[in-house]
Amino acid sequence: MLESVYNNCVRCGLCLPACPTYLETMTETSGPRGRISLIKAVDEGRIDLLSPGFVEQMTQCLDCRACEATCPSGVQYGVLVETMRARIEAEAGPSRKPAARFLRRFMLEGLFVHLNWMRIAASFVRFAQRTHLDALAALVGLRDEAVLAPRIADRFFLADGQRYDVDHPAGIAFLHVGCVMQVAFPQVHDATVRMLNLAGLSVTAAQGQGCCGAIAVHAGEPAVARAMAQRNIIAFERSGADVYVVNAAGCGSTLKEYEHLFEDDRVWRKRAAAFASRVRDITEVLDAMEFRKPPRPLDVTVTYQEPCHLVHAQRVSGAPRRLLERIPGLRLVEMNESAVCCGSAGIYNLTEPEMANRLLERKVGNICATAASVVVTANPGCAMQVSSGLRNAGSGARVAHIVELLDEAYR
Ligand code: SF4
Ligand code: SF4
């Protein structure tokens, strides 16, 4: 099956300038064309799956999909890297140290599956952040984790089946509440609900939903991801909603691609395809709706950081900009390389800190050159990564989700 994907590559190299790790290293093996050659060699048995050079390249790749979006031959690079990561995990996973195996299982099958566990863990992190105990994280080797951890909110946004109704709705939107978003970004959900209501849609935060499974997909754990997908598909089917709305780009691309998880299951593949056809990023939904203009101008200079999984994986680029243009007084200054990854990429900034920091420095330089006071994005990972980069650089610019800024303009 992989053969039919990698054989589409004609080795033209047009994807190279879009690849963040190639831009940083200027080496063939750290670019998409080199990685595709390696994947082909492994699949044909010419290189060992667990050879250090191959594992390093599968790990160093951000899975940002910039190569896929620029490829004129339509090579589905994401399928290649995710399949190879799953094969590596299946072969190397059992030989990991017991502590590392336990931590991985606890994260993937505990925290991200049982969201009440995540809320308990987030409450501990919040306590540490408020009492400055997090400053001690360096003593137990968790300095990077503490620096990159999002500020846990004072209250969480739970999917308890609550409804936010409007008179004569144009439809019902299912709000994807997610995992990290519910504990770290409840204000983004609040703003999303208000904007959807303003656009004439009733909203349901239906029970039964959970994490999208992106973290399991990227970690090469398709079985875990499948269980998460089934939960969300069932919750949406039961809700009676018309559209499944997502305000985290990384989740959106995974949700839209659930079909890939069920290649060998005809019944679930069909259900996943029907589900995916209803998934929309919040910017797509709002861009398609007519609603009144903001009542007053917002005197602010903004630059837009494109989340990889919105621009490359979902190919959504115009909608966020058109929404920003609806706000009177707002000046949008485009940064250089707005579509180059900031280095966040799920947990990449923890697993590959050196490359992640190089990409973050590059991003912060491009942001600062715009002199914008607000950096708008549409993904929690980008927001956390860019915020930490701006803080370290001593910049006073703030980071906001696009719905937060829209909501500000209307309130
Ligand atoms: S992946 Fe696509 S763009 Fe890149 S070298 Fe192959 S054919 Fe060319
Ligand atoms: S997914 Fe991103 S980092 Fe990986 S090869 Fe493609 S462009 Fe490069």
Blueprint (SSEs and pairs):
Blueprint: H1 2-6, H2 20-25, H3 32-43, H4 52-60, H5 66-70, H6 77-92, H7 98-111, H8 115-130, H9 143-148, E1 162-164, E2 171-175, H10 180-184, H11 186-198, E3 201-205, H12 214-218, H13 222-239, E4 243-246, H14 249-256, H15 266-276, E5 279-281, H16 282-288, E6 300-304, H17 308-311, H18 318-325, E7 330-332, H19 348-351, H20 353-368, E8 374-377, H21 380-392, E9 398-401, H22 402-410
Parallel strand pairs: 2-3, 2-4, 4-5, 6-7, 6-8, 8-9
Antiparallel strand pairs: 1-3
Helix pairs in contact: 11-22, 13-15, 16-18, 20-21
The structure holds iron/sulfur cluster (SF4) (2 copies).
Written account of the structure:
It is built from 22 helices and nine strands. With 411 residues, it is α/β, with parallel strands linked by helices. The chain has three domains: 2-95, Fumarate Reductase Iron-sulfur Protein, Chain B, domain 2; 96-291, no CATH class; 294-410, Rossmann fold (3-Layer(aba) Sandwich), CATH 3.40.50. The protein has a five-stranded mixed beta sheet with strand order 1-3-2-4-5. Helix 20 (353-368) packs across helix 21 (380-392). The longest helix has 18 residues, at 222-239. The radius of gyration is 21 Å and the shape is globular. The termini are far apart. One iron/sulfur cluster (SF4) binds at residues 9-15, 32-33, 36, 67, 71, 73, 75.
